[in-house]
Specification:
The structure holds two protein chains of two kinds. By secondary structure, chain A is mostly beta strands. Chain A contains no helices and eleven strands. In chain A, strands 2, 4, 5, 9, 10 and 11 form a six-stranded mixed beta sheet that branches. In chain A, strands 1-3-8-7-6 form a five-stranded antiparallel beta sheet, with no helix packed on it. In chain A, strand 7 and strand 8 form a beta hairpin. The relative contact order of chain A is 0.34. Chain B is mostly beta strands. Chain B has no helices and eleven strands. In chain B, the strands form two sheets. In chain B, strands 2, 4, 5, 6, 9, 10 and 11 form a seven-stranded mixed beta sheet that branches. In chain B, strands 1-3-8-7 form a four-stranded antiparallel beta sheet, with no helix packed on it. The termini of chain B are far apart. The model of chain B has no long low-confidence stretch (mean pLDDT 94). The chains are: A mainly beta, B mainly beta. At the A-B interface, strand 4, strand 5 and strand 9 of A face strand 4, strand 5 and strand 10 of B.
Chain lengths: 110, 114
């Protein structure tokens, strides 16, 4: 079983729609969680950290469910510029290494 | 700050040739990483370093070697390139401070091995 699994999509949504997707992780000792964004053929960039209580950053909301071992990302009022691949990142406790999911592709259409 | 830079951006090798990829960061980060990214497989860790003079193996280290002689540089070497090493290689440095844990990636090196 992979350490981090994501639905690859693609999620094709119209502008203004809400889109949400999850990422599951296998290591119950994982302590830190993040969402990164990667545009086509570019380097990944941090979108947001995911906190235990859930957190919002503008139109983006991230949630953590430790009991079921998944994190989620919700994008409200989608913009064309939100089209990208979203990578889930998990860090086990006291580990230098990060585990990346393969990514979920979102395409926002006009 | 330039952030994380990688050299070269593109390279084509023949099977059996060797090369070194250079990663440099000017943010004084202790941790640095080398990943490869292949379609549908996400980022896989090759080697990493937690400080100058130290390196460790990641998930897919075979066929690669690394060195971290200076804090700001992390070199990835391919001694005898194989077609299976055709990939996009990303270097990253990591900032860990109170309230922050962020990986900063370089722009990538696109390597083709014929």
């Amino acid at each position: 079983r992979k350490e981090v699994e994501q639905d690859p999509g693609p999620f094709n949504v119209p502008e203004g729609a809400t889109v949400a997707f999850n990422c599951t992780y296998s290591n119950s000792a994982s302590q830190s969680f993040f969402w990164y964004r990667q545009d086509c053929r570019k380097e990944p960039k941090l979108l947001m950290s995911v906190y235990s209580s859930g957190n919002e950053d503008g139109r983006f909301t991230a949630q953590l469910n430790r009991a079921s071992q998944y994190i989620s990302l919700l994008i409200r009022d989608s913009k064309l510029s939100d089209s990208a691949t979203y990578l889930c990142v998990v860090i086990p406790s006291n580990d230098y290494k990060l585990s990346f999911g393969a990514g979920t592709t979102v395409t926002v259409r006009a | 700050n330039a952030g994380v830079t990688q050299t070269p951006k593109f390279r084509v090798l023949k099977t059996g040739q060797s090369m070194t990829l250079l990663c440099a960061q000017d943010m004084n980060h202790e941790y640095m990483y080398w990943y490869r990214q292949d379609p549908g497989m996400g980022l896989r860790l090759i080697h990493y370093s937690v400080g100058e003079g130290t390196t460790a193996k990641g998930e897919v280290p075979d066929g690669y070697n690394v060195s971290r002689l200076k804090k700001q540089n992390f070199l990835l070497g391919l001694e005898s390139a194989a077609p299976s090493q055709t990939s996009v290689y990303f270097c990253a440095s990591r900032a860990i401070r109170t309230g922050e844990d962020t990986q900063y990636f370089g722009p990538g090196t696109r390597l083709t091995v014929l």
